[in-house]
Specification:
- This protein is mainly alpha-helical and 194 residues long.
- It is 50% helix and 11% strand.
- A three-stranded parallel sheet has the order 1-2-6. The chain has a two-stranded parallel sheet with strand order 3-5. The chain has a two-stranded parallel ribbon with strand order 4-7.
Length: 194
C-alpha cells in the first residue's frame, strides 16, 4: 500500500489537514500491512490559478514567507507513487517529496517578473486574518479557509524547509532530479502565451 500524506505532517499538528494525515500515518505504521508513505511539500500546481493576479496587477499573493517552503511538482508525486507500487524495496519506507528549489514570496516575485517581463510584487503574509477573510469571500468554506490560514501561518512562523539529503533521496527514488518551481513557472508562461 502507498499512502499520500503531507510533508512534515508531525510538525504541524495544529493544522487540521496535517493532523488528519499524521493520524493515518500512525495507524498505517501500527497496522502490520506493508506500506510506503509519500510526504509531498506544497504543490507547485496550486499556483496555476494565479494567472489573473500575476499577469494583471502583478502580484504574487500566496503567503509563503521570505525564508521559503518545500515544494513539489505533482507529476513527480505521480512518478514516486508508481515506483512505490510497482517496484520492490519500498515497504516500510517514508519518502519526503521535495524539490531542491524552495519557494519564497520574494523568490516567486523575482521568477514571475523575469518570465512575464513586468514588475511582480510579493504581497503575502502581512495579515493572516485578512488572508482567511479573503479565502471565505472568494467562496471557500469556513473550515477550509481556517485550515489554509493556520497552515500558511505555520509555514511563515515555523518554517517549512527541506534538507539536501531529503531532496537527494527523492532524486534517487525518481532516478533524476525533481522538477523545480522556476521550470514549472516557465511551462505555465508558455501555456498562457500560446
Amino acid at each position: 500500500m502507498t499512502y499520500l500524506s503531507v510533508y512534515q505532517a508531525d510538525r504541524f499538528l495544529d493544522v487540521p489537514h496535517f493532523a488528519a494525515k499524521h493520524a493515518v500515518e500512525e495507524a498505517i505504521r501500527e497496522g502490520g500491512v506493508p506500506y510506503t508513505i509519500l510526504r509531498p511539500g506544497y504543490f507547485m500546481q496550486n499556483d496555476r490559478h494565479l494567472k489573473p493576479l500575476l499577469t494583471g496587477p502583478g502580484v504574487y499573493p500566496v503567503p509563503v514567507g521570505n525564508q521559503g517552503i518545500a515544494v513539489v511538482d505533482v507529476r513527480d508525486i505521480a512518478q514516486a507513487a508508481a515506483i512505490s507500487l510497482t517496484e520492490e524495496g519500498h515497504a516500510g519506507k517514508t519518502y519526503d517529496l521535495v524539490s531542491s528549489e524552495m519557494l519564497s514570496g520574494p523568490g516567486a516575485a523575482t521568477i514571475w517578473s523575469r518570465l512575464l517581463g513586468k514588475d511582480v510584487k510579493y504581497v503575502g503574509h502581512r495579515d493572516f486574518d485578512a488572508f482567511e477573510a479573503q479565502l471565505r469571500k472568494t467562496g471557500n468554506p469556513s473550515w477550509l479557509a481556517y485550515d489554509l490560514r493556520v497552515m500558511f501561518q505555520g509555514f511563515v512562523e515555523r518554517g517549512f524547509s527541506h534538507t539536501e539529503s531529503q531532496t537527494a533521496r527523492f532524486a534517487a527514488l525518481l532516478g533524476r532530479e525533481p522538477r523545480k518551481y522556476s521550470s514549472y513557472a516557465e511551462e505555465l508562461v508558455k501555456q498562457w502565451t500560446s
